[in-house]
């Protein structure tokens, strides 16, 4: 049975308390005459137009003003399903090689004496391998790879991959929402001016809902609560749109928003999942278009280089939950990423391990992937694109 947890919206809830007058007070108090029309105060609610038969005063004034700013009444909540924390775990130990290149050896003694090398790894600036043992000797630290080879331990272990998790949803939200990419200040007005009050702080990865967008001095701002504004560039936003994109058939698709660095999953006309991602960094863009997942692999070894001198060579062992959709471009877990929400990859769509596991379990080969950039900054000419990479 699925359980629900709620992510509350930052709204002021108005409660009126009425105390009846006693008989003596009633005799001493002079009643205020009602208007000639005989109108009474409306029940608390949103009155964007004059109701005619009642006066929209008191709580209704506040609620109506909030509605004009985009705040729904009654207050909206995001209903997120409880996620399984085990999705963030993988049965591998990862090791980052910090040396530009290194050799592997058949046993610990050969590695410590640096004799009888089997192969050379690198040169490259991004190399991660899986290992099964670590030994410290008087000559240094050495690691045993899952292949059985030994190598000098000039590197660092990935003890805790990025544990960020997006949200599994019980229904399509009515307003845009997103995550703080970095911690940022909350301001009372959409301005960086020094005299604008700081009314709070938004923690990294905190979920917010977006009620209004405003551009001030060429800077875009989001209203996340009454008189609470944050810079738009600090938030990765999902704009709910359950209508199938052009070219998508059926009722299942993955929406990749390059402008916001977010991903949303739709099924049967409803959003069922959303999260932060990291896509291709200029000039290794993730290509816009409509694609289909053509292969799923629980793990994949990825390697490649784009520069002629191979100075950008990378090798990534046991990349988890890989779903290919556009040549070598895939959606997959990225244990080497410490943050998401901005472009970083060679064209793939990088996710946290937990999010990639959820999507891998949901997705089927043939499912649609819709990649788009509303800013138009990502090239659409196929000549700009090679096969892509991690």
Keywords:
390 residues; mainly beta; SH3 type barrels; L,D-transpeptidase catalytic domain-like; 9-stranded mixed sheet; 29 strands; disordered N terminus
Question: Your description of this structure?
Answer:
The chain is mainly beta. Helices cover 8% and strands 37% of the residues. Among the domains are: 42 residues, no CATH class; 64 residues, SH3 type barrels (Roll); 133 residues, L,D-transpeptidase catalytic domain-like (Beta Barrel), CATH 2.40.440. The longest helix has 10 residues. It is elongated, with a radius of gyration of 28 Å.
Short summary:
By secondary structure, this protein is mainly beta.
Task: Point out poorly predicted stretches.
Answer: 1-32
The count of helical stretches stands at 4
Radius of gyration: 28 Å
| Class from secondary-structure proportions | mainly beta
CATH topology of the domain at 252-384: L,D-transpeptidase catalytic domain-like
Detail the topology: elements first, then pairings:
Blueprint: E1 4-7, H1 23-28, E2 40-41, E3 54-55, H2 59-68, E4 78-81, E5 93-97, E6 102-104, H3 108-113, E7 119-121, E8 126-137, E9 140-145, E10 150-152, E11 155-158, E12 167-169, E13 177-180, E14 184-187, E15 198-202, E16 207-209, E17 212-216, E18 219-225, E19 228-231, E20 235-238, E21 252-257, E22 262-267, E23 270-276, E24 289-292, E25 295-304, E26 314-326, E27 329-333, E28 349-351, H4 353-362, E29 368-372
Parallel strand pairs: 2-3, 8-26, 21-29, 27-28
Antiparallel strand pairs: 1-4, 4-12, 5-8, 5-11, 6-7, 8-9, 9-10, 12-23, 13-16, 13-20, 14-15, 17-18, 18-19, 21-22, 22-23, 24-29, 25-26, 26-27
């Amino acid at each position: 049975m699925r359980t629900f947890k709620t992510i509350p919206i930052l709204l002021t809830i108005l409660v009126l308390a009425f105390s009846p007058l006693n008989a003596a007070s009633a005799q001493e108090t002079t009643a205020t005459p009602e208007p000639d029309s005989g109108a009474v105060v409306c029940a608390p609610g949103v009155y964007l137009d004059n109701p005619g038969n009642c006066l929209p005063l008191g709580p209704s004034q506040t609620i109506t003003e909030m509605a004009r700013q985009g705040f729904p009444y009654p207050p909206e909540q995001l209903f997120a399903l409880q996620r399984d924390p085990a999705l963030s775990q993988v049965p591998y130990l990862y090791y980052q090689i910090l040396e530009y290149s290194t050799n592997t050896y058949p046993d610990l003694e050969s590695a410590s004496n640096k004799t009888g090398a089997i192969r050379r790894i690198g040169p490259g600036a991004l190399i991660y391998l899986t290992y099964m043992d670590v030994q410290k000797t008087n000559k240094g630290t050495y690691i045993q790879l899952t292949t059985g080879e030994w190598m000098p331990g000039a590197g660092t272990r990935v003890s805790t991959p990025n544990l960020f998790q997006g949200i599994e949803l019980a229904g399509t939200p009515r307003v845009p929402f997103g995550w703080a990419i970095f911690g940022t200040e909350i301001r009372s007005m959409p301005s960086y001016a020094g005299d604008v009050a700081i009314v709070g702080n938004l923690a990294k990865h905190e979920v917010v809902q977006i009620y209004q967008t405003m551009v001030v001095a060429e800077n875009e701002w989001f209203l996340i609560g009454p008189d609470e504004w944050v810079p738009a560039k600090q938030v990765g936003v999902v704009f709910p749109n359950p209508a199938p994109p052009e070219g998508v058939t059926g009722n299942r698709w993955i929406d990749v928003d390059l402008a916001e660095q977010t991903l949303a999953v739709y099924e049967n006309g409803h959003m069922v999942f959303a999260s932060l991602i990291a896509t291709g960094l200029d000039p290794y863009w993730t290509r816009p278009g409509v694609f289909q997942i053509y292969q799923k692999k629980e793990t994949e070894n990825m390697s490649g280089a784009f520069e002629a001198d191979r100075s950008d060579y990378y090798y990534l062992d046991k990349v988890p939950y890989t779903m290919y959709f556009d040549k070598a471009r895939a959606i997959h877990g990225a244990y080497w990423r410490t943050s998401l929400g901005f472009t970083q990859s060679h064209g793939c769509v990088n996710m946290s391990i937990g999010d990639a596991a959820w999507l891998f379990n949901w997705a089927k080969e043939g499912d649609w992937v819709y990649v788009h950039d509303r800013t138009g900054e990502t090239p659409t000419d196929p000549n700009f694109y090679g096969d892509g990479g991690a």
